[in-house]
Amino acid sequence: AQSVTQLDSHVSVSEGTPVLLRCNYSSSYSPSLFWYVQHPNKGLQLLLKYTSAATLVKGINGFEAEFKKSETSFHLTKPSAHMSDAAEYFCVVRELSGGGADGLTFGKGTHLIIQP
Amino acid sequence: NAGVTQTPKFQVLKTGQSMTLQCAQDMNHNSMYWYRQDPGMGLRLIYYSASEGTTDKGEVPNGYNVSRLNKREFSLRLESAAPSQTSVYFCASSGVRQGYYNEQFFGPGTRLTVL
Predict the structure, then answer these.
(1) Tens of pLDDT along A94-113?
(2) Quick check: B56 and A90 CB within 8 A?
(3) Alpha carbons within 13 A on the beta-carbon side of B6
(4) Residue B45 has pLDDT above 50, yes or no
(5) Is A89 strand, coil or helix?
(6) Which residues of A have a CB under 8 Å from any CB of B?
(7) Which pLDDT score is estimated for B2?
(8) Cα distance from A58 to chain B (closest Cα, Å)?
(9) Contacts of B30 in chain A (CB under 8 A)
(10) What is the per-residue pLDDT for B47?
(11) Could you say which DSSP state residue B40 is in?
């Protein structure tokens, strides 16, 4: 069975400083991993996804994530935070179970606060 | 392309009332999903449909039914609403072709309050 843990429920950084949102997963098989962002009162938007082609994945808006199999981690980073990055971020894992369920398992989310 | 659309955007029900949440996608996707989002819980899968004509239960199906009307449309029905079903509901779709790395595309959500 798969699971995902987002290690921080809230992260606060100053504008212009680096962002680190941490995610650990457990999976019986090689996972499919995603980061989504949700701005207030909006739907979810894909930031990036891990497809096994490369361990360092670049996404939209300057975000990137590194897949580390030995640490079962997929942390999201950005070199310099912008006010518009304030949002909820979800780490997501997919594992094809024997039952064929195709749904994703979501972490509980990290609320990113950007201080001016 | 409108992507994934959901109606209504907001709804207030009394306990015991019924309603249907509508979802449509114009991306020719095979799979469609219904999630609910509650504070501190992330998103939890209610039902999904891997292809037209098939539906399966997700993590939290009790109190809900679904219909995959055609390839574009996937509706969620609450037969007798309860306060515990107060939540934000998201529809999503995925996959023109089967693929392990297919991402899901989400609608804007329906905010439902059950009094």
Answers:
(1) 876 544 456 678 899 999 99
(2) no
(3) 26
(4) yes
(5) strand
(6) 9, 32, 34, 36, 41-46, 49-52, 90, 94, 96, 100-104, 106-109
(7) 83
(8) 15
(9) none
(10) 94
(11) T
